[in-house]
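Repro:
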Amino acid sequence: MIQTDVIIIGGGPAGSVAAQRLASAGLKAVLLERAVFPRDKTCGDMVAFEGLQALERTGLAEWSAAFHPVTRLRFSAPNATTLDVAVNNRHGGVVARLIPRRLLDARLAQAAGQAGAKVMDGAKAEEVSFDDRGRPRVKAGSQLLQAEMLLLADGSHAPITRKLGLLKGEVDLVAMQQYLAGDSDPDGPLEFHFTQGIIPGYVWMFPMGDGHINIGAGTYTRRARGQVNLRQALDDLRSRHPLDPARLARTEPLTPMRGHPLHTRLSITRTHSARTLVLGDAAGLISPFTGEGIAAALRSGEMAAAQTRTAFEKGDFSAAALAPYTAQLKARYQRDKQAGNFLRSLLGSAGLLNSVISKLSRNPQLGTLFGQIFMDEISPMKAFSLRTIWQVLI
């Protein structure tokens, strides 16, 4: 049996950052990842500003700076009305970068290992139990591990989190993504198209800056069950780009289409219990408005590591002692999620989308605000300020 201080299940951004922080603090941490690095994930690959800050705190500022910066956005309404936005970070520097998850997750896991964590990829957590003192035990293949604390970063599927009764309810969004090769405009804007067949979701097209393009589509889970065909939405984007029909004519698929659920509801997840914390996508931290989740995953990894360190310092692993972690998550994300859910509901109306994007295109200040919200640079609550509402109405 492997004895350690902390077991982290899931080698995505949340789990790896937590492992890196804990190992750096002198705790023994084991990171379990079912796949073998490097591995692909269905994702838009956009790391927003808060995520870039977390990478900098992980010592990866120079590494991340090599990836394509986001400088322009383009939105289109169902009637093809277009909004172009130049995004300049109000804090200075780059607002976001496009970092393929295959590279990001592998580098974060490497950083965890370099800090002293034991990284076990290709190790699927099959069973979790607790001994008579409440300490977690995890069976992964032929290995049995025991620790004082368990961190669950097992993604939107969250199989272990669900088995332990910490997540009850279904995922609410689903996305499908594919990489294309042969981009004719590698420095083009990030594109978000609210097409008639997929709203209240959207299709995206992100030039990666290296001749590859990340395309994808996302919508409500219930609409993807018989109402919306995401594969068809991606095929339509390639064959009939909403604004430039020939834009993707010469591209070729680089990867197959991959689908993935998105869990956006923090409210249905119990993010702490005795000796256990839930973080990242498993905690429902994905934005309900945009579907972005990397930045929140990285921050939750930092928060969970800090709370875990406090537990070890006090020798108290009770649910009450770990409750401040949940309080921090709610203070940071709950109001944003409420606002994001409301904004998402508005995207279901083609007429409203046509009107709003038309007005935003005529008001550079409001257009920039919309872009900042979409980049998760500022809170979606900003959209509900009296000043913003007044500007939209007039």
